[in-house]
Amino acid sequence: MKKNMLKEQYARLFKGRPSTNDAKLIRENVDPEEYIDVNKMRQINDVDKRGEINMYEDGEEIKVPLKKPIDGKREFIATVYADDGYTSFTFEEEVEEAFESVGIDTLNDLGDFMEDSMF
């Protein structure tokens, strides 16, 4: 009985006819800019005053202010990874989980968003 019910639910999902109960199985990704205040982030981290070469040091902490709280926090910290002309920004696992909890795709969207925002 339960097996048939699950089979029907997944069939609806894959045929494009989800019911309201299926909403937990489908989640739209949220644009990080809905939560991260880019202008404030650039301002408090003095992005516009940095030189074009070696803008960030490896291990440097970047403050990431939020437009609205996530898990009761108004700001997170990203750590810079800089090596051989390549720079990326990483977050602690619990911060990534907090972003994921509001629908921000940390695997595909957050890294690109940070790089676009900070250069």
The ordered H/E elements are HHEEEHH
User: Helical proportion?
Assistant: 25-40%
Poorly predicted spans: none
Percentage beta strand:
15-25%
Spatial strand arrangement across the major sheet: 1-2-3
Radius of gyration: 19 Å
SS-derived structural category: alpha+beta
Number of strands: 3
Largest sheet: 3 strands, antiparallel
Mean pLDDT, to the nearest integer, reads 85
Task: Write structural notes for this entry.
- This protein is an alpha+beta fold.
- The chain folds into 2 domains: 1-28, no CATH class; 31-118, no CATH class.
- Helix content is 35%, strand content 22%.
- It has 4 helices and 3 strands.
- The protein has helices at residues 2-14, 38-44, 93-101, 106-118, and strands spanning 61-70, 73-83, 86-90.
- A 3-stranded antiparallel sheet has the order 1-2-3.
- β1 and β2 form a beta hairpin.
- The chain is elongated, with a radius of gyration of 19 Å.
- The model has no long low-confidence stretch (mean pLDDT 85).
